[in-house]
Amino acid sequence: MVPGSPKDLKLRTRLLVTLLFGGGLLGVWWFVHSEKQQKLRQQRVEQLRQVALGQGTFSLMDHTGCRRTKRDFLGNWVLLYFGFTHCPDICPEELEKLSTVVVTLDRDASLPPVQPLFITVDPERDDEAALARYVKDFHPRLIGLTGTVEEVKHAGRDYRVYASAGPKDEDGDYIVDHTILIYLVSPDGLFLDYYNRMKSAEQIADSVRKHIKNYATL
Amino acid sequence: MTAPNSAERKTCWDARDHLWKCLDDNDDNAASCQRFQSEFEAKCPAQWVKYFTKRRDFLKYKIIQIRGPHQK
Questions:
Q1: Looking at the partner chain, which of B1, B6, B12 has a beta carbon nearest the beta carbon of A172?
Q2: B61: domain range?
Q3: What is the dihedral of CA A97, A99, A105, A106, to 10 degrees?
Q4: Could you tell me which chain B residue has the CA closest to the CA of A175?
Q5: Quick one: closest CA in A to B49, which residue?
Q6: Which of A91, A131, A204, B52 could disulfide-link A144, Cβ–Cβ 3.0 to 4.6 Å?
Q7: pTM for the predicted model, two decimal places
Q8: A interface toward B at CB cutoff 8 Å?
Q9: B12 in any annotated domain
Q10: Name one GO cellular component term (chain A) (predicted).
């Protein structure tokens, strides 16, 4: 059979047409699928906007004595945890976990650095000095924040954080019962997600990574 | 009073763990673990002693609920 004979040409043409047609179909499907994913992402952001956590502003003192407001952290991804320095075990464990998450994410050069924040629910005892002593045991980028009772209450209210000081014993010591959550805040100050005690450092890091990647494409 | 630092927290947690291991090994017979109990109370703030003791009671209660009250 001579190459380029009519039979071959017909087969080649048919193959080409099929491939083009199949490719076209695949292209359309992919386009529709990515549009749908985009829509779902937008819906979720809308829902979170409506939940309206972290919409307010806070003004607090950091552990080095500098005043910081919510505005100072815009442009950064933030992982936020509320606790107190006299906490027996939960706060150190959660902050240890938070530090591990930040270290994990730091290893990925394609991601921006995440800012860990610790806001006290015990402003009466947790002044700047107490916070400075506390945060140095965790990630070097961890910033501790405190303020007056009103300022701290205002910040907690913004994230609907529950906090209730227990009775004082004869040493004047007490435990503060409080919400145990790590909050993820986007660079434009939007609350995007939260992680409870059950979430491991890997799970949190994975979730944050996904949020950062999706956010870039919104 | 200042909050316990990282080393002090670890000392307290270790004392607590030794006490709890002793109690586990001795069927919660507190008399057998007096030494560990004193260590625990010496190494941890009073509030933490109360907190961890309550926590252990709660964890035991949870296990009883799962296993059933008549099982040993």
A1: B1
A2: 7-67
A3: -160
A4: B47
A5: A88
A6: A131
A7: 0.81
A8: 85-86, 88-89, 92, 125, 130, 133-134, 137, 169-175
A9: yes
A10: mitochondrial inner membrane
Q: What's the pLDDT score for residue A152?
A: 96
Give how many domains chain B has, as a whole number.
1
Which ipTM did the prediction report? 0.85
Asked, for residue B2, whether it belongs to a domain, the answer is no
Single-letter residue type at A30: W
Ranges under pLDDT 70 in chain A: 1-5, 45, 49, 52, 216-218
Question: Residue A208, class by beta-carbon neighbours within 10 Å (0-12 exposed, 13-18 middle, 19+ buried)?
Answer: buried
The tokens describing A73, both together, are: 């952290």
SS (H, E, C) A157-194: HHCCCCEEECCCCCCCCCCEEECCCEEEECCCCCEEEE
Given a contact cutoff of 8 angstroms between Cβ atoms, the answer to whether A130 and A122 are in contact is: no
Q: Is residue B18 part of a domain?
A: yes
